[in-house]
Q: What sequence folds into this?
């Protein structure tokens, strides 16, 4: 059985690592590889390729393509799910922050979300088997984050989660409209909600980050 794979990764050693792990499947599958080292190259493969990829590996830290408004692997993941709904998407990340992992699940809904510190080569083989069989596979940090964040889902809607995540990544408030489909005034109102939720009476973005870390959100 032929499986067409797109690997979106900018580190050659990681690319070879994926191929080496996939070789353990032996003769069960014939893997055909396409590689993209940044968001722009991946975008071209997704929209211009005649291939219908079966399995896509996406590293969230892939270099951006700002001209295409692809600022991270998350933006690319959203496009992949819309453009190639039949492809199985496996996202790999070094992030362990609950709010980031939860946002990926809610916004992209990948078939696989793997925190790199959570798995070994054998675990990746198991994940691929599960996903090719039609199941989802999340590593332990992801599962824990979903449980934690579900408690606060009524407050932490899509935009509040995104604002909190971007602030914790060091994005200034004045630059947030570039990343969100919101006006600056709407963002300021939501920041007041975030401060109320975190128990901040008075404070700046640094206080938001500190409170979010203290509560285990990031």
A:
């Amino acid at each position: 059985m032929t499986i067409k794979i797109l690997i979106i990764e900018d580190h050659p050693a990681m690319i070879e690592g994926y191929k080496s792990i996939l070789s353990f499947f032996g003769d069960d599958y014939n893997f055909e590889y396409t590689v993209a080292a940044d968001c722009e190259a991946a975008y071209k493969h997704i929209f211009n390729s005649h291939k219908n990829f079966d399995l896509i590996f996406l590293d969230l830290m892939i270099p951006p393509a700002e001209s295409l408004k692809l600022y991270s692997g998350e933006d690319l993941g959203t496009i992949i799910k819309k453009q190639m709904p039949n492809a199985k998407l496996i996202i790999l990340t070094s992030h362990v922050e609950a709010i980031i992992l939860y946002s990926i699940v809610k916004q992209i809904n990948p078939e696989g979300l793997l925190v790199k510190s959570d798995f070994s080569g054998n675990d990746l083989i198991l994940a691929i088997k599960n996903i090719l069989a039609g199941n989802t596979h999340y590593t332990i940090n992801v599962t824990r984050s979903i449980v934690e964040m579900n408690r606060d889902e009524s407050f932490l809607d899509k935009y509040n989660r995104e604002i909190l995540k971007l602030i914790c990544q060091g994005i200034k408030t004045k630059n947030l409209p570039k990343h969100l489909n919101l006006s600056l005034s709407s963002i300021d109102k939501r920041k007041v909600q975030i401060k109320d939720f975190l128990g901040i009476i008075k404070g700046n973005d640094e206080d938001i980050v500190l409170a979010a870390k203290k509560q285990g959100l990031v």
